[in-house]
Amino acid sequence: MSEVIVVTSGKGGVGKTTTTANIGTGLALKGHKVVLLDADIGLRNLDVVMGLENRIVYDLVDVVEGHCRVKQALIKDKRYSSLYLLPAAQTRDKNAVSPEQMQKLCDQLREDFDYIIIDCPAGIEQGFKNAIAGADRAIVVTTPEVSAVRDADRIIGLLEASELRNPSLILNRIRMNMVKRGDMMAMEDVVDILAIDLLGVVPDDENIVVSTNRGEPVVTDSSSLAGQAFRNIVERIMGNDIPLMNLDVNEGFMGKIKKLFGIGN
Amino acid sequence: MELLNFFNRKPSSGNVAKDRLKLLLIHDRINCSSELLEMMKTDIIKVISKYMDIDEAELDIQIGQTKSEESNGTVPVLYANIPIKNMRKAGNQ
């Protein structure tokens, strides 16, 4: 039984591509056969985040238009034996493929893979419609900001209107020190407002920048907090019940002093 | 920062964000534009003015939320605050 999962958000820059890369790599590390499908035609980036940008020959549009076979366009990641990437076209636009073509492609990929993870473009137009067309389930990524949560809410409405019910939420870039002092919405606030199941919380972590610089997903970094968060998310996608990790960071010298005197929380 | 908040008694920015977002989503989900609200306001004034003398300038109408009586959640609600200048008996005009 294979599963097609679309990673979406509405707003750009909240971490869709990073999430796609990490979930896919994490699932591959668990021994599953995974293909990452970049649906962001014209602004492809998943290849760069994965460090595979130099190996692209054919792309998604070439496959859809019949210029090559699916297998020719798939890039095998040499680091993780069961991971593949189907890159988006960079010189075309979102109208180059149709929802029907995407659905057909997803069904074709189901024959060879356990998981097909789709990186959805930002926005709610054609690119979004294409990306969700062949999906079984959706993951909505957001950050604890008013604009990102608002867009996530809109996307959840659109997903449900497209029969993709029960999307799950990944809250990205949370900063516990800011939440603690009341300057960032807490996980509970966002989950309460959006009213969908929480798949995981990913802390804001400098290691993400470092790993993206190198083109190596942070999920492979055993010492990174964000890496651990993604490993937990991968477990939950596989159906395992993993409790949310403790994100409390070292509160620092002033925090300890305040605690000593009973000020604050 | 916490100490500053303690003296300022300003609501934390996280709570401000939460409250703004809640109100924003009520409007987004209902898909009710300010234009529509304005049209509704005009109609309400028309109807109520038939029966009583109201202060049109002070009339306030907005969409907010209130605790649902049936479930634990909140439900959207239409608030209308209509100051009455003078009660007139129905059908007097």
UniProtKB/TrEMBL annotation, chain A:
- InterPro entries found in the cross-reference section: MinD, MinD_FleN, P-loop_NTPase, ParA/MinD_ATPase, YlxH/NBP35
> What CDD domains does the record point to?
MinD
Q: Which UniProt keywords apply?
A: ATP-binding, Cell cycle, Cell division, Nucleotide-binding, Septation
Presence of keyword ATP-binding: yes
Please give the function described in this protein's UniProt entry. Answer: ATPase required for the correct placement of the division site. Cell division inhibitors MinC and MinD act in concert to form an inhibitor capable of blocking formation of the polar Z ring septums. Rapidly oscillates between the poles of the cell to destabilize FtsZ filaments that have formed before they mature into polar Z rings.
What family name appears in the similarity comment? Belongs to the ParA family. MinD subfamily.
Name this protein carries in UniProt: Septum site-determining protein MinD
Q: Which organism is it from?
A: Defluviitalea saccharophila
Q: Which gene encodes it?
A: minD
From TrEMBL, chain B:
- Alphabetical UniProt keywords: Cell cycle, Cell division
One GO BP on record is: cell division
Q: Which SUPFAM superfamilies match?
A: Cell division protein MinE topological specificity domain
What InterPro entries has UniProt attached to this entry? MinE, MinE_sf
Source domain of life is Bacteria
Has UniProt tagged this entry with the keyword tRNA-binding? no
- Keyword hit for Cell cycle: yes
Q: Which Pfam families match?
A: MinE
Give the record's family classification. Belongs to the MinE family.
- Role description: Prevents the cell division inhibition by proteins MinC and MinD at internal division sites while permitting inhibition at polar sites. This ensures cell division at the proper site by restricting the formation of a division septum at the midpoint of the long axis of the cell.
Q: What is this protein called?
A: Cell division topological specificity factor
Gene name of the record: minE
